[in-house]
Amino acid sequence: MKLWRKLAIVALVLIMIFVFSACAKPAPEAPEKPETPETPEEPEKPEEPAANVFELALITDVGTIDDKSFNQGAWEGVEAYAKENNITYKYYQPAEQSDTAYIDSIGLAVKAGAKVIVCPGFLFEVPIHTVQTEYPDVNFVILDGVPHAGDWVPDIAGNTYSIFYAEEEAGFLAGYSIVKEGYTKLGFMGGMAVPAVVRFGYGYVQGAEYAAHELGLTDSVQIKYTYVGNFNATPENQAKAASWYNEGTEVIFACGGAVGNSVMKAAEAADTKVIGVDVDQSAESETVITSSMKNLSKSVYDALKAYYAGNFPGGTSVSLDATVEGVQLPMENSRFEKFTQADYDAIYGKIVAKEIEIMNDADVVEDSGKEADQVSAADIPVSKVQVEVIQ
């Protein structure tokens, strides 16, 4: 009996172990801890655009945009096109007169989003040569100059447009009109003897000669002729002009930017006359009888118009003359009493038709048979004009 009970207890225990084993649920495996993803790098933020973006830019050379001369004429073209077409624009004035300062100002314009940069003056020739390759997506318009590396060998990239003017024609119109007006004691006071100024002066002498022949003058037209060596309004320039007026000069062609301001002051004191240059300077003084103009505003305007029309004339250099209204006198604001619009139209038509041979600086050098640095206005072949070159 005892043995059976023991066997029964053992059997019961075994059955209970089996039942509990079958009913028990296996513990679920702990889920694998997901890998922590690496923090992704933040994408590079695009460069913020400049607070003010200016599509069109002009860099001044030695003057300001209100110099009433070369810079102002160019600026008026930029401003007119920009305002008409709702395009942003700005001018930059370099810290000093140097290639480095010009290049720095151009860099500022590019940084501000400039698509076209206008650079008036031959002082930009070497800087433009540098930047035209440095900024191939920017277009440049250089006035009175052509890019070169300092060796005077023209090198115009496809994004640069070089514009010259037939200053000899503009000067011719001034000299012709003033002699037809009745003046025969004239002066030419240039700034520096750079090609553009020289061409103005040589044309002035030839225009006076042509008018003297038309009028049949028996006495020679007298012209005092000099370069003052700067483009500034100075007491020295005013004193020189005053001395000429005191010696009997009736009209001085002031061809040197701000030099004109000095001549105008002298003319006001002497109650005499001045011929302005580059732009219409009639508003500067009552003494300004007319102005020998390059059509700066129109040429800049047309260049910008060509760019936005998709036919920018990059890689070329042009000389704008009377055939394309590149030069002119502002007859509507001139203070002539005898020289009429009909007179002007007639002589202008002859220039356009090439009926008159007007020599430029290179022509005078070739005709003289001298070295370029030995030639002066006294070498212009004239018979009714006496040129007194004053060093």
Topology:
Elements: H1 2-23, E1 56-59, H2 70-84, E2 89-92, H3 99-111, E3 116-120, H4 125-134, E4 139-143, E5 160-165, H5 167-180, E6 185-190, H6 195-215, E7 221-227, H7 235-246, E8 251-255, H8 259-270, E9 273-278, E10 288-294, H9 296-308, E11 316-320, E12 327-328, H10 341-352, H11 361-368, E13 385-389
Parallel strand pairs: 1-2, 1-3, 3-4, 4-5, 5-11, 6-7, 6-8, 7-13, 8-9, 9-10
Antiparallel strand pairs: 10-12
Helix pairs in contact: 2-9, 3-4, 5-6, 7-8
What's the short version?
The chain is an alpha/beta fold and 391 residues long. Helices cover 39% and strands 17% of the residues.
What features would you highlight for this structure?
disordered N terminus; 6-stranded parallel β-sheet; 11 helices; globular; 391 residues
Helix- and strand-based class? alpha/beta
Reported by name, the CATH topology of one domain is Rossmann fold
CA-atom Rg in angstroms:
39 Å
- Largest sheet, order of strands side by side? 12-10-9-8-6-7-13
**Count, helices:** 11
Counted beta strands: 13
End-to-end C-alpha gap? 155 Å
Order of helices and strands: HEHEHEHEEHEHEHEHEEHEEHHE
Major sheet: 7 strands, mixed
Regarding quaternary structure, how should these chains be classified? single chain
